[in-house]
């Protein structure tokens, strides 16, 4: 055999070895190339569903319906991203009718976890909140989830969702008005209570709206600019029956240029709710329905927190739902000093009742987030989970 023949034989042998090796190794190489992504996406979603279910999230919304490995994996990872975001940041509470707060959401956190090639989610996914009432409620939820009614389970879930929703907003401290408990609480970041106060909220037929908003100023010795609806439905008929009613309530009549109008110059009998062109205003002072302090909130409903001229209602009656929608606060001085971040009002402020005062606006050092919520299951000031009457019949 000459050199040429020998080289051809060697080359042929090498080629044969390569072909045989390829035949045996191809299935293994192809399997490694195609399988991991498909199964990892579904596995991660299943893990996240179990985690979310354990903290009160309805996971029936996070299912994969696509067919085909590639499409199923892609849909699983998309659902996983949405679920991880809800685990950390909650959903906007369904009762909210207004929201002026700007959320700060780290969407890259969820996207990165959803794209991972590993098959196990880190335990840290569940450690989304160090807020103490949330931790307490999660523990209680684990104990009762299989033993309570559907309505009770829903009330747990709504509160857990709200506490996760708070993660959207970087806050040093914030105000929570929980309507079913008729209470106001100022929390710090960890969930410690800086202030608690009873409140009086809207009647069942004049419900205080739920919202996420902020407080930016306090008005000392405020006027009460009577809302148009109250003025036409309640004040106007009383004035028509009793011409002295305005004087007895320290009220004035204002025209559309905010100029006072002499009540005696008006033909009251000719007015009806449809043609009354004026508005009512109550002068400042201890007789004023807003009391001595008003806490302005951003919202389109003219809803705010305020003191009251009927402070005895907090001690003489258990009815905490008797306003037209605004929120009367039992401890307005404590709240004012806290949000102003210094002691502006002393203990005697509420009793001095100065007369002929012009309203004075005090700007807050920084806006304070305020959440008016409807939670029939919550953690009370003693750290115990408590259940409250569904006064507005909103748990459904």
From TrEMBL:
Family matches, as InterPro entries: LD-transpeptidase_YkuD-like, LD_TPept_cat_dom, Transpep_catalytic_dom
Biological process, per Gene Ontology: cell wall organization; peptidoglycan biosynthetic process; regulation of cell shape
Which residues carry out catalysis? 306 (proton donor/acceptor), 326 (nucleophile)
Which PROSITE patterns does the record associate with it?
Answer: LD_TPASE (PS52029)
SUPFAM superfamilies associated with the record: L,D-transpeptidase catalytic domain-like
Chain ranges of the L,D-TPase catalytic domain? 173-356
One Pfam family in the UniProt entry: YkuD
- Transmembrane residue ranges: 7-26
Q: What's the protein name? A: L,D-TPase catalytic domain-containing protein
Gene source species: Arsenicibacter rosenii
């Amino acid at each position: 055999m000459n050199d040429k023949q020998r080289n051809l034989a060697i080359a042929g042998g090498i080629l044969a070895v390569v072909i045989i090796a390829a035949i045996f190794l191809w299935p293994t190489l192809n399997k490694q190339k195609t399988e991991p992504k498909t199964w990892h996406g579904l596995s991660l979603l299943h893990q996240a569903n179990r985690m979310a279910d354990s903290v009160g999230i309805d996971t029936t919304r996070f299912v994969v319906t696509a067919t085909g490995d590639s499409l199923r994996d892609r849909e699983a990872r998309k659902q996983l991203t949405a679920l991880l975001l809800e685990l950390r940041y909650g959903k906007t509470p369904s009762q909210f009718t207004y929201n002026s707060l700007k959320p700060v959401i780290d969407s890259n956190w969820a996207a990165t976890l959803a794209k991972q090639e590993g098959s196990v989610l880190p335990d840290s996914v569940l450690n989304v909140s160090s807020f103490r009432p949330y931790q307490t409620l999660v523990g209680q939820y684990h104990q009762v989830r299989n033993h309570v009614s559907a309505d009770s389970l829903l009330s747990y879930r709504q509160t857990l969702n709200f506490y996760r929703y708070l993660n959207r907003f970087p806050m040093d401290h914030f105000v929570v008005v929980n309507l079913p408990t008729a209470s106001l609480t100022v929390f710090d970041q960890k969930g410690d209570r800086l202030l608690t106060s009873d409140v009086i909220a809207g009647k069942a037929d004049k419900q205080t709206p739920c919202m996420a908003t902020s407080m930016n100023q306090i008005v000392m010795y405020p006027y009460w600019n009577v809302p148009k609806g109250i003025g036409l439905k309640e004040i106007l008929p009383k004035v028509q029956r009793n011409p002295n009613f305005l004087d007895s309530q320290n009220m004035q009549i204002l025209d559309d240029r905010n100029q006072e109008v002499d009540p005696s110059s008006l033909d009251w009998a000719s007015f009806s709710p449809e043609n009354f062109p004026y508005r009512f205003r109550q002068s400042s002072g201890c007789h004023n329905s807003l009391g001595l302090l008003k806490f302005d909130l951003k919202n389109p409903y003219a809803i705010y927190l305020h003191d009251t001229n009927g402070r005895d209602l907090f001690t003489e009656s258990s009815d905490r739902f008797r306003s037209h929608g605004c929120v009367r606060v039992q401890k307005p001085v404590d709240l004012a000093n806290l949000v102003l971040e210094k002691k502006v009002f002393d203990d005697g402020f509420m009793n001095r009742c100065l007369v002929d005062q012009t309203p004075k606006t005090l700007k807050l050092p920084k806006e304070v987030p305020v959440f008016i919520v409807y939670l029939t299951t919550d953690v009370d000031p003693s750290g115990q989970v408590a259940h409250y009457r569904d006064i507005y019949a909103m748990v459904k």
